Design the sequence.
């Protein structure tokens, strides 16, 4: 997937068909920043499982995303071969204007200085990694809430069911089965039995509804410094440090926001950097301290290195609140 992913001439679509529009202005040095971009690594964190209705990778390596923007529903396709992009729907122009940030033009991999051999090797091997910045909070916040204290497969299934039932088909010639997530009002109006059918317990559904009711305040966090943005999200009962970090990493492209409260990450970081599989959050943060300013990138590289402790305990068993 390596190649030059600087913004190229792009198109949005209106009812009359494709209309050429000026390419979005590249950020300073964005063309240099996006050389050798790995599209899959960069946008991969936005996909919530292989069946995510809002995200699709096609056989040619192109990435399709369906998003709920401030201007409405939009679909964008980024071609892996040359970085050209097209967008459709009312939100297409919004997505194209923010394409450079989505592809990591605002990220600075050169700011990362490896202090461990493992990270030096992985940083070199994964040089196409950029930290995406979507500029959209709710599209990352809601699935992150759904992922609280359940297996990823459970959360992915819940997200998939709810988006397909309450979302809308993705605009344009998107691959079959792609949907734009529901708007805030629709999330807030989902009845309790439908949450139940999607295997979402009352605590998580209530947190989604609370956030949806103040969605405009949540979206403002995309333009705030990451630490302040997390505080804004955590004002909502049911949204804690784990959820806020997972959200702001994506919406704000935050290279230093570490996920704490995770069941597995401290042990993975501890094992990779110190051979300690019993590490807790405090130990993990101590090990990542030399990477201040880039701690999220360091953790991401550790995960990409494949160096994980051997499994001893059985996998977490999926829960089922539906009784089926």
Sequence:
């Amino acid at each position: 997937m390596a190649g030059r992913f600087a913004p190229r001439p792009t198109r949005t679509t209106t009812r009359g068909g494709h209309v050429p529009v000026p390419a979005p202005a590249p950020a300073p040095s964005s063309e240099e920043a996006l050389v050798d971009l790995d599209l899959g690594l960069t946008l991969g964190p936005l996909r919530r499982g292989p069946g995510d209705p809002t995200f699709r990778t096609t056989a040619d390596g192109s990435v399709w995303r369906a998003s709920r923007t401030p201007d409405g529903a939009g679909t964008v396709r980024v071609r892996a071969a040359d970085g050209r992009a097209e967008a459709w729907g009312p939100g297409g122009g919004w997505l194209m204007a923010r394409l450079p940030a989505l592809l990591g033009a605002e990220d600075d991999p050169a700011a990362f200085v490896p202090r461990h051999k493992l990270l030096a090797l992985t940083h070199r091997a994964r040089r196409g990694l950029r930290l995406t910045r979507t500029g959209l909070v709710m599209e990352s916040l809601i699935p992150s809430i759904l992922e609280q204290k359940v297996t990823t497969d459970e959360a992915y299934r819940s997200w998939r069911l709810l988006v397909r039932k309450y979302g809308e088909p993705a605009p344009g010639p998107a691959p079959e089965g792609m949907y734009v997530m529901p708007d805030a009002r629709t999330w807030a109006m989902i009845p309790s039995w439908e949450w139940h059918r999607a295997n979402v317990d009352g605590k998580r559904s209530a947190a989604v509804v609370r956030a949806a009711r103040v969605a405009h305040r949540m979206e403002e966090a995309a333009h705030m410094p990451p630490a302040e943005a997390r505080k804004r999200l955590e004002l909502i009962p049911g949204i804690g440090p784990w959820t806020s970090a997972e959200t702001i990493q994506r919406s704000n492209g935050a290279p230093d926001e570490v996920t704490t409260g995770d069941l597995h990450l401290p042990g993975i970081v501890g094992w990779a950097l110190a051979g300690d599989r019993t590490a807790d959050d405090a130990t993990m943060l101590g090990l990542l301290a030399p990477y201040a300013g880039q701690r999220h990138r360091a953790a991401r590289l550790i995960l990409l290195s494949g160096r994980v402790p051997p499994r001893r305990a059985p996998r977490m068993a999926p829960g089922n609140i539906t009784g089926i």
Remarks:
- The two ends are 43 Å apart (CA to CA).
- Residues 1-10, 14-30 have pLDDT under 50 and may be disordered.
